[in-house]
Amino acid sequence: MTFINPKTDFAFKKIFGSPDSKDVLISFLNAILYQDRPVIEDLEILDPYLAPQIKGAKNTYLDVKAKITGNKTVIIEMQVLHVESFEKRILYNAAKAYSVQLKTGEDYRLLNPVIALTITDFKMFDAIDHFISYFVLKEKHVLVNYPIGDLELVFVELPKFDKALDELETLADKWIYFLKSARLLNSVPEPLQQNPPIQKAFEIAREANLSPKEMEDLEKQEIFIQDQRGVIERALRIGMERGMERGIERGIKAGKVDLILRLLTRRFGTLEPSITNRVSELSVEQFENLGEAMLDFNSTEDLNHWLQTH
């Protein structure tokens, strides 16, 4: 028995964001957001796409979005790579999820709280030792909460979690162990079998339950993640090598151009000079967006269309 990696975008959405996963998501959110208390009794899994209300504004694609007890909206993102401006993206997505609730002319009283839950496969806060962090708006000097606590940012940093199977105490511990270790297991550990939602999550994650198309999509994502790690590592190395003569920032960009072109060439063969030139002109943010979009390209026509519209 083998399991797919819950940390990949495809697997995370399948386990926590499918219509049949309500009980799985309720258990997970109660564990992470409410310290195992059964605060969430029911939820509605929503379309994770946040359409812009203003023409030309940025689209937002989330991993999972749900409306929970108390009319709160939870947006969830699983992030494997620490890409540039990721911290700003979290704030942007949370603010956008809050603001798109209102249509023109509607009263601000209709706004409901938003919780942005971000799970990272890298460390974000060196000054914080614990693996789950909760951020709210507070007054800077006396740390009094803002009167309306409608925005919360919650982070789970997987590398900070180092508990062994026999050390798991809380339901949050068990869920984080599942996220970190499921891909390495060939059976469901006995301590995790006692929780029906976690047992169900393992069942959803069984490779044997995936269709050939789903397996193909999953493999593409895992290869893409490895390639992107290579892009980042090579870009940093090239950036450092060229940093003295060209400036570290320019050197890092040159490394990213080199690696992105290598990935595109590997996928589509020799590229037209117009594509190579356009890729070389992309901004740092556009490089990140291109990296995310590449999985959906089926031909150079798709790539050309993306480059023309971004």
What features would you highlight for this structure?
11 helices; 310 residues; two-stranded antiparallel sheet; 46% helix; globular; 13% strand
Descriptive overview:
With 310 residues, the chain is an alpha/beta fold. It has two domains: 9-209, no CATH class; 212-309, no CATH class. Helix content is 46%, strand content 13%. The protein is built from eleven helices and eight strands. The strands form two sheets. It has a six-stranded mixed sheet with strand order 1-4-5-6-8-7, sandwiched between helices. Strands 2-3 form a two-stranded antiparallel sheet. It is globular and about 60 Å long.
Counted beta strands:
8
- β-strand percent reads 5-15%
- Element string (H = helix, E = strand): HHEEEEEHEEEHHHHHHHH
**Spatial shape:** globular
Alpha carbon gyration radius:
21 Å
Helix content: 40-55%
Largest sheet: 6 strands, mixed
Q: In whole angstroms, how far apart are the ends? A: 43 Å
Within the largest sheet, what's the order of strands? 1-4-5-6-8-7
| Poorly predicted tracts of residues | none
Give the overall pLDDT as a whole number: 84
Number of helices: 11
Count of the domains: 2
Structural class: alpha/beta
Topology:
Layout: H1 9-16, H2 22-33, E1 43-46, E2 49-50, E3 60-61, E4 64-68, E5 72-79, H3 86-99, E6 114-120, E7 132-135, E8 151-157, H4 171-181, H5 190-193, H6 196-204, H7 212-246, H8 248-268, H9 273-280, H10 284-293, H11 300-309
Parallel strand pairs: 5-6, 6-8
Antiparallel strand pairs: 1-4, 2-3, 4-5, 7-8
